[in-house]
Amino acid sequence: MSTSAMSTPTATRAAWLQIHFCVLLWGFTAILGKLISLPSLPLVWWRMLIVVVLLLMLPRVWRGLRLMTPRLRWSYAGVGALVALHWLTFYASIKLSNASVGATCMALSSVFTALVEPLLTGRRISKRELLLGMAVLPGVALVVGGVPDGMHAGIIVGACSALFVAFFSTLNKRLSDHGDALAVTAIELGGGTLLLSMLAPVTALLSPAFGDSPFVLPDLRDALYLLTLAVACTLVPFALSLVAMRPLSAFGINLAVSLEPVYAIVLAIVLLGEQRELSPQFYFGVAIILASVLIYPFLMRPSRVAHPELLATSESKQVGE
Q: Is residue 139 within 8 Å of residue 292, measured between CB atoms?
């Protein structure tokens, strides 16, 4: 047997371990969102700013930026505004409820995408995707009934966050082939940082969970958590996943990343003890939602990983066509 033939299974196993490690790191985003004491606005502002600063230290990013037209840069910045709104509402959802509820709401993004993408691209709505979306509804009803009344606002805000995922992931797919992935991420998160700076006078009127200013200096504890969120849960898994995708199919990767809410909920139980706040009805509803999400890759069977840059900018990772 040739050396290359022997190395292929080894490379594939290593890639599987790598992609699941990435999913585990992404699962920590909800946990860190709960642990960081800052409101949603400064939390997201600092996360985006740290990532942008680190990316701008890379010569590759500057080369990618120079190759883009001004119109393309503005387009990516506009998508970045949607990314910022997604993260803002995602962490506000966690502040208004808990990490388990916020992670569960992100599982709704595939349902919203099935409806939003045809509207934005002009293609016909898939009957399979529509049926899958309808199958999620009983799970959503159980989730709503399985949390304390005080957490219902978190579910509503979390559903809005999942809707923002549907919009920006659809737009990213149309633009993704026109720029380097790291440069795209830098522009999007830079644009999102600017938007959050402008939204500061408005967000406090919506809910204290959003906060009223991004320019809040975190204490040492929050600063360490923010660095972990930006580096370990954003840049590191982004870089690792780009390498792990090479020997794997998009089907397998979509199946693996669909487990992210599962990782987040298990971590929330182990690290935060959130099972004491939620009823068995909630977890039954979660099981229905996740079953629908996990079935999605089997129905769609994408043949390749088309848009890896989406991994850096969403708590709900959708990488195939």
A: yes
Q: Which residue, among 313, 64, 310, 299, has the nearest Cα to 174 in the 3D structure?
A: 310
Length of the chain: 321
In the numeric block, the tokens 């709960």 are attached to: 34
Tell me the average confidence (pLDDT) per consecutive run of 10 residues in the chain, 321 residues long: 53 82 90 94 94 94 92 91 93 93 86 82 77 80 89 93 87 73 88 91 76 86 96 86 68 71 90 90 89 72 53 59 47
User: Which residues sit opposite 305 in a β-bridge?
Assistant: 320
Q: Look at residue 191 in the predicted model and tell me its pLDDT.
A: 94
Distance, in Å, from the CA atom of 92 to the CA atom of 112, rounded to the nearest integer, reads 19
CA dist 114 and 105 (Å) reads 16
What is the predicted pLDDT for the residue at 216?
86
What ranges do the domains of the chain cover?
A: 13-313
Residues 6+ apart with CB under 8 A from 89: 40, 157, 158, 160, 161, 164
Token duo for residue 23:
């999913």
220-231: b or e for each residue (b if 16 or more CB lie within 10 Å)?
Answer: eebeebbebbbe
d(CA 49, CA 214): 11
Q: How far apart are CA 217 and CA 155, in angstroms?
A: 28
Distance from chain centroid for Cα 243: 19
